[in-house]
């Protein structure tokens, strides 16, 4: 079982950079659905300070249908959106019969409304006060949802404790 973070047409390179760092640090796979609002070449990546980019497991897709065609019948797809009736803590992410894919919408417009209306049972949300803000920051949202999945999975292959170097010498 692997966790996958899927970004639909991301437009803000800083968000994608933060999310890439999160996926590199959690052994999650990062999927980017084109078109992107920025370049992924070495010059842009280095300028953003992404010195960990070589550790990012990156998969690019030409379109949403292209991405959906890669899913297996046993995989679990979650659409993360404010237009959802289920709390992000409700699904059982410890299920191991397939991979878990968390699909996040474009920062400016979210996921396509038609697609969301066709899949309301897959939609999850982080509770928020919708009267004061339109949405939470994308990179924060990814971290919240991914770490809930990892918590339910008992943080597989991740350090849950860490020791200061000087303490290791004692």
UniProtKB/TrEMBL annotation:
Domain tRNA/rRNA methyltransferase SpoU type: 4-147
Keyword Iron part of the UniProt annotation: no
The enzyme's E.C. designation: 2.1.1.207
Functional note: Could methylate the ribose at the nucleotide 34 wobble position in tRNA.
Catalysed transformations (reactions): 5-carboxymethylaminomethyluridine(34) in tRNA(Leu) + S-adenosyl-L-methionine = 5-carboxymethylaminomethyl-2'-O-methyluridine(34) in tRNA(Leu) + S-adenosyl-L-homocysteine + H(+); cytidine(34) in tRNA + S-adenosyl-L-methionine = 2'-O-methylcytidine(34) in tRNA + S-adenosyl-L-homocysteine + H(+)
Compartments it resides in: Cytoplasm
Gene3D superfamilies with a match to the protein in the record: 3.40.1280.10
GO cellular component: cytoplasm
Residues annotated to bind S-adenosyl-L-methionine: 80, 105, 126, 135
Pfam families, per database record: SpoU_methylase (PF00588)
Family: Belongs to the class IV-like SAM-binding methyltransferase superfamily. RNA methyltransferase TrmH family. TrmL subfamily.
Any Gene Ontology biological process: wobble position ribose methylation
Keywords linked to the UniProt accession: Cytoplasm, Methyltransferase, S-adenosyl-L-methionine, Transferase, tRNA processing
Name of the molecule in the record: Putative tRNA (cytidine(34)-2'-O)-methyltransferase
A GO MF term: S-adenosylmethionine-dependent methyltransferase activity
InterPro entries: Alpha/beta_knot_MTases, SpoU_MeTrfase, TrmL, tRNA_m1G_MTases_N
């Amino acid at each position: 079982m692997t966790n996958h973070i899927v970004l639909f047409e991301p437009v803000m390179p800083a968000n994608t950079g933060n999310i890439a760092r999160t996926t590199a640090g959690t052994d999650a796979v990062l999927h980017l659905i084109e078109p992107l609002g920025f370049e992924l070449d070495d010059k842009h990546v280095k300028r953003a300070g992404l010195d960990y980019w070589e550790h990012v497991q990156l998969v690019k897709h030409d379109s949403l249908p292209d991405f959906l065609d890669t899913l297996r019948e046993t995989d679990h797809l979650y659409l993360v959106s404010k237009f959802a009736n289920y709390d992000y803590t409700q699904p059982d992410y410890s299920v191991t019969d397939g991979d878990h894919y968390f699909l996040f919408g474009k920062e400016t417009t979210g996921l396509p409304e038609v697609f969301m209306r066709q899949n309301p049972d897959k939609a999850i949300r982080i509770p928020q006060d919708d009267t004061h803000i339109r949405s939470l920051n994308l990179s924060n949202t990814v971290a919240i949802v991914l770490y809930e999945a990892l918590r339910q999975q008992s943080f597989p292959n991740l350090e849950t404790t860490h020791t200061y170097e000087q303490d290791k010498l004692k």
